[in-house]
Amino acid sequence: MANSGVNEDGNSDVTLKNDDVIELNLQQLNIIPHCNSKEDPQINEPSTLPDGALGKEVDSERYDHLNCNESDESASRRNHFNCCGNGSSALTLDLKDDAFESIVTLDLLPYEIILHIASYLDSKFIVSTLSKVCSSFSDLFNDVNFWKSRIRRRWPKEYPALPAKDPETFDWKEACIKRELEFCLWSNVAKKLDYFVFEHGLYGAVDTVHLVENGNLLAVGSRDRYLNILDVTKLTKEDESSPVSCRIFCKDNAHDGWIWTINSFDRTLSTGSWDTRIKFWDLPTMSQIHEARANSAILCSHFESNLYIAGSYDKNVYQFDPRLAGVLSKNCYHRKPILCLVANDNYIMTGSEDSTVAFYDRRHTAAVVKKQKLQQYPMSMSYDNGQLWVGDKGGSVHLLDASSGDLKLVKTYNVGHAQKVTGIIHTPGVLITCSTDKTVKVLEPNLDPGLIVNLTEMTSEVAEISYRNGVLACASSGMCVGIYKRRENDQQ
To answer: Is there a contact between 302 and 342 (Cβ–Cβ < 8 Å)?
Structure first.
């Protein structure tokens, strides 16, 4: 039998000859389970794909069983490669068989074994490396049913929370990657994240935070009328002064009233205030480039190419073109102030102190498509893939179906908040909420969100959150900002 070892690159340097029986232990190969869900202790059981199914439409349920019918070719392969049963991580290869003249290659393994190995691997590694080994692997790991099955086995609850409006365009591979990344990050906060507090030069409660530049910069607006910009990349535990030195811009009296909402598009930052003004800033230079004005305090906003939409204290929805002076349109859909607002290409959704959520076609702004009454008034909103998530004054979270030009309450959740839900963020990988009860909760983005972690480092009410690329910023009434940042040695 040939010698084996580890080469200088740290990779396995094993040559398999056909004169012996060799046992490979997956743990010795440093193949370890990745992000196992607490809800699915059987996650590491091997899943399988029927032989000959590569590149074909396959019944996804067949991925979950090892006892599927095999072709003659697959059965023959299995005779050469016998995997120890009952969850053993050892793989016994009988190399005395004449079928193996010299070297065993990975592509000769039965698909059941390949899928078993894949269940131990990071999904990003599967996509970036394993799927590129050969055309068969490319077909196997680009089959949508493989990714559906992988998600279902690790997180059995219904996902996505609402069926995709167009199932053919829903990216299961990307969804799986995001879910695994987020679950691994937030289920290991102590090992993977550092927590910082920015409070230098703040003299009032912080009401709004907004991450830009892929999470590298953080804009902070507060009741002292200051606008601060922080360089998040400078935050490090090795430098105790970094929560001070990370501030790269400070504009006192940026507004004449409390800065209540910050947004951005491309390299332009917007700030809305109780002084009724919206100001637009060039991010590279932080010079003011435009200003617009409403008739009342600006409480929430949406910013996209050449259009800024604002919800105001006077119950109106304003639309502005940042390049022009004046108001494009002003419409009233509520009986009380508008507290939260989101929009997509076709619709604008607003939540008001009158306890209603309004949903209307932005192409015909005079007509409300639908209204939904809630028991407590909405304070925060997040929209993604037809799902409208709403946090209310009483601490509840609501899921509304906002697809297909309709607005329907699907379910109301008690996620554990005791007071107002002041911020909510939903992505394909995670659901995050914050509250005046001083907590931030990170949840699974299922139909029935399960708690991943309850963050309790904040010592004052949390007014708003912003999340991007492993950085979570929390605005606090205690005149500070809490920042969770993925550690440098854990960058994904």
So the answer is: yes
Amino acid at 30: N
Write down the residue that tokens 């205690």 correspond to.
478
Nearest to 182 by CA among 487, 375, 432, 488: 432
Q: How far is CA 368 from the centre of its chain?
A: 31
CA geometry: angle 300, 304, 307, nearest 5 deg? 80
The answer to whether residues 215 and 232 touch, using CB atoms and an 8 Å cutoff, is yes
CA distance 292 to 280: 8
What's the pLDDT at 364?
73
pLDDT, residue 366, reads: 60
Going by C-alpha positions, the residue among 330, 331, 336 that lies closest to residue 313 is 336
Residue pair 355/377 in contact by the 8 Å Cβ criterion: yes
Rg (C-alpha) for the chain, rounded Å, is 27
Token pair of 415, please?
A: 């996620």
Helix (H, G, I), strand (E, B) or coil at 337: coil
CB 392 within 8 A of CB 398: yes
Is pTM, for the whole model, over 0.85? no
Sign of CA dihedral 213, 472, 374, 428: positive
pLDDT at 336: 97
The region, left, alpha or beta by phi > 0 then psi within -120 to 50, assigned to residue 52 is left
* Residue 138, SS3 per DSSP: helix
∠ CA 345-346-350, rounded to 5°: 100
Give the pLDDT confidence score for residue 25 in this predicted structure: 43
Residues of the chain falling short of pLDDT 70: 1-104, 365-367, 490-492
Burial class (CB in 10 A: 0-12, 13-18, 19+), 87: exposed
- Which SS3 state, helix, strand or coil, does residue 242 take? helix
Reported residue count of the chain is 492
Contact (CB, 8 A) for 372 and 407: yes
C-beta of residue 269 within 8 angstroms of C-beta of residue 219: yes
Question: 144-154 and 172-186 helices cross at what angle (nearest 10)?
Answer: 30
